[in-house]
């Protein structure tokens, strides 16, 4: 009976082991699902958030053309092609200064005088020596005439054997001696005349004249000071005054070499002085200096005024707009893109803006044609309808995810 019960127990299925096996089979997928959910939550919390930015949409504006189109804007200074700091040819003490700042002077007008006492004394001595040489010639010339007449008389007498040959030769030698003396004294007169001219020139050098007509812009010396044509240190001046020819005023502009292809000789220009911002001055390009500044990457352009005005002064700051040579028809339409200056940044010496695309920003280089007030006109780099960032935050970078806040 016992063996029969043991056989039946051996054939019985153990339900507790199957139950434990089923419990283990769903535990592993559950762990994997929990791990995946935890990783997703961690990634969501760890990923960078978007940056809120203010944006505006770029819009093309159509305007009716009524004149020449502006190709380039630049700034420069009013300069004088003819200006000079007037000095003296000799070192001396200033006795008179006859100019003041702002005074008009004519060509060869006396600007100042130096101490000429020593030069005048030497000039008087040279004139006296010239006069002495002239008196000696006046004395020798009649003696030579008399000696030549005596020589002629002795030659006639010697032909008749009335006088000896020795008397004739003596008369000849006296006439030759007086002739040589006259030649030497005449040369001495020429030397004395040149010496007088030299001292007169030195006297003239003590009188400083205006080399050309103009306006005195600075007075550099006073009576009693020493002046020299070269700098010798101390209290010695090197100039009396500075004169500017106001008829030679023009504008010098440094144009970035990347835009020099927009400038041509004879091109019309509109100039605006910083001192008179509402005054539009017509001008034109005189010349493009055929060399570039390696340090500044610029090319110098000379711009001449169509008409000068007393309000235009040397060294004034000026802004210029280079216009196209052809006039735009009044019926034609021009399109332009104008954006706020607050949207423009500088990077690697270029103007750039941040353009929003698909929720991210990308940096875009642009070309600014002109700036007016708080806006600037863009000639290249942007398309109609694109959205750009205004007052971009410092943490923004290429590819940053942003949330737009329309302006």
Uncertain regions: pLDDT < 50 for 5+ in a row? 43-47, 328-332
Distance between the termini: 98 Å
Strand share of the residues? 35-45%
Tell me what the CATH architecture of the largest domain is. Beta Barrel
Instruction: Estimate percent helicity.
Output: 25-40%
Average of per-residue pLDDT values: 83
Quick structural summary:
The protein is of the alpha+beta class.
Q: Could you please describe the fold and organization of this structure?
A:
This protein is of the alpha+beta class and 407 residues long. It has 5 helices and 23 strands. The protein has 4 domains: 89 residues, conserved putative lor/sdh protein from methanococcus maripaludis s2 fold (Beta Barrel), CATH 2.40.420; 93 residues, Efflux pump adaptor protein, beta barrel domain (Elongation Factor Tu (Ef-tu), domain 3, Beta Barrel); 71 residues, Beta Barrel (OB fold (Dihydrolipoamide Acetyltransferase, E2P)), CATH 2.40.50; 88 residues. Strands 1, 2, 17, 18, 19, 20, 21, 22 and 23 form a 9-stranded mixed β-sheet that branches. Strands 3-12-15-14-13-16 form a 6-stranded antiparallel barrel. About 2% of the residues have low confidence. The chain is 31% helix and 37% strand. The two termini are 98 Å apart.
